[in-house]
Known about the structure:
Layout (H helix, E strand, L loop, with lengths): L1 E4 L17 H25 L3 E10 L2 E9 L10 H16 L9 E6 L10 H6 L4 E6 L8 E8 L3 E5 L1 E2 L8 E2 L3 E4 L3 E6 L3 H15 L1
Parallel strand pairs: 3-4
Antiparallel strand pairs: 1-4, 2-3, 5-6, 5-11, 6-7, 7-10, 8-9
Amino acid sequence: MSISDRSHDPVPEPSADAAGPDSEIVSDSKTVLAERLFSLLQPVVQERRLYLEDVQVKIAGTRRIVHVIVDLPNGEEGSVSLDVIADLSHALSAALDADPEDDDRPYELEVSSPGVGRPLSELRHWRRALGRIVTVTPVKQEHTGSQTGRLVEVTEAGVTLQPEVQVKKGMKPKVGEPVSFSFDKIRQAKVEVEFHRAEESREANQEGRG
């Protein structure tokens, strides 16, 4: 879910030809600005009992795109609603307007929550994904392919998946043997979309309106 605030005309992406000796300086300035804005905006996010996942900054000419990613705190299920995103967007915009270190260059603020398919890169991500179908790609040294299964356990050291072996259409998948991965053996991982969950969600919404 996402919402934009303080919109401007479309910002063109810098072309490859524009890269030059100053590109590294621009990259460093983006990192410094993102870190400073993270500290500035974190209290605003926390006031609304949300978790500040990341602040990303893109610079195109004299304009900046500030992308703020927020999530629900640990222990809470579901996703951040659009109403909450909209309210937070106004509060973050006010904080940016009041930034004492701002140089008055125009910016576009984007506020969003992580969607399905986001990388699982932190322990909190894994804990929130418990019970979901995930795909784990191990480091190359393991000489094994990617493994997809339901996430059934998360510890400080690693995770355990319960693979689901597909059978004939219309039949429930068979459950395979659990597969465990230590975090140092995982190259990347993500949550997969489950279409039957989406269907259940739609049916629940229809019942609620009935």
